[in-house]
Amino acid sequence: MTFQHIIHHLDKPHSWFIVLTNPHTELNTKKKLEQQGFITYVPLVSVRRCWEGCIKEIHIPAIARCVFVYATDENVLRMQKEYTILNPQAVAALYQDQ
């Protein structure tokens, strides 16, 4: 995704939404959404894992099953045909009650 592509899409009102994915498919979903022209974000964390006595550092999603998408309301309606979409305000309201 180029910087010009992002600038071109900022003239319309956008919000951040959360796309729920299947387990361990966050990066594939991110790539698919970017190919469709969406601005996406998946925060990653570095972890060390041991395979057959060899320690490797890998990057995994910090928030399981979530891809953040910067989109218009029209785009969200289009995405809802394929994905479950959460509005961040709704998620924040859930955590405020705890």
TrEMBL record:
Keyword terms, alphabetized: Transcription
Keyword Transcription: yes
Keyword Transcription: yes
Alphabetical list of InterPro entries matching this protein: NGN-like_dom (IPR006645), NGN_dom_sf (IPR036735)
A Pfam family hit: NusG
UniProt signal peptide: none
One of the protein's GO biological processes: DNA-templated transcription elongation
Boundaries of every NusG-like N-terminal domain copy: 15-87
UniProt-recorded name of the protein: Antitermination protein NusG
Organism of origin: Bacteroides stercoris
